[in-house]
Please model this.
Amino acid sequence: MTGETMKQGRILKGVGGFYYADTRDGIIVCKARGKFRIQNIKPMVGDIAEIRCLDDETGFLSEIKPRKNFLIRPPIANIDMIVIVVSQAPPVTDTFLIDRVSAIAAHQNIETVIAINKCDLDDGDKLYEIYTRAGFKVFRVSGVTGDGIPELKQSLAGKLTAFTGVSGVGKSMILNCILPEPGLKTGEINDRIGRGRHTTRHVEIIKIAENTWLADTPGFSAFDTGQMDLIRKEELSGAFFDFLPYSGNCRFTGCAHIKDSGCAVIDALKQGRIEETRYLSYKRMYESIKDIKDWEHKNV
Ligand SMILES: Nc1nc2c(ncn2[C@@H]2O[C@H](COP(=O)(O)OP(=O)(O)OP(=O)(O)O)[C@@H](O)[C@H]2O)c(=O)[nH]1
Ligand SMILES: [Mg+2]
Ligand SMILES: [Zn+2]
Model:
């Protein structure tokens, strides 16, 4: 009997009241203490926890470190980066979806990078142009040939990254190329990472290297449900970081960049310095949240 020790770990998954925490000494299976329920804190995948270890393999979660951010659906905390997988080959990705997800991410201080997949079929010049010009880091990849995957993989180091994108865009194929285990089939990854009908409640992240974790997440629609109305209309243009060089120069303070009277953002749009699709997405998102009253915003 060596007695209890304290360790810190990241929660990889929670199943049936047990949490699997990744510590420097391996995986510890933990139960949560009653005090979390009293404080109304439910441990989430991605949380950093203090663990009171009973032995080398089991323990209790004794504290959850403050979260730097979290998504509601899928429920993951402390995300450093989101990779939006897109494609200009079928299914062609709608730029509005990209802009909505990246705005939600920016609002939560999560970096967004874009991976244009299926470049073996279409190298996605249009999307590449729009998003590099808007200031995003953009990778061109192919889940089939493996082209571009090493560069994408390099950008994951030291982070917890969530992959998102519409069904069929090739997330699992890309993850298949990235994951260390050789010969793991796409279907098995789907099982392990937890997407699909019976797994939406069961999110899991996977460690691929020291300090480096990945999550495959369901498609866009699930991603943003309940998350959009966390953004107040005044905060929205701040989540379009390509507007920031201009948004301080509007004639009226608090300009919503919707009316063309002295609006520096609309001027930049007219001069081609802001991408039209980016502005249209902003406007569409603004219209959808502008009538939400302050007290109606979710206070989570
Ligand atoms: N030509 C080509 N086909 C690809 C590529 N990546 C994926 N595919 C094909 O696209 C289809 C969907 O790929 P998946 O990886 O299952 O897509 P997903 O994003 O995981 O889809 P969901 O799990 O439904 O969200 C499969 O038939 C793949 O073979 C690629 O880079 N090039
Ligand atoms: Mg998949
Ligand atoms: Zn303006």
Notes: Residues 226 and 256 are 23 Å apart (CA to CA).
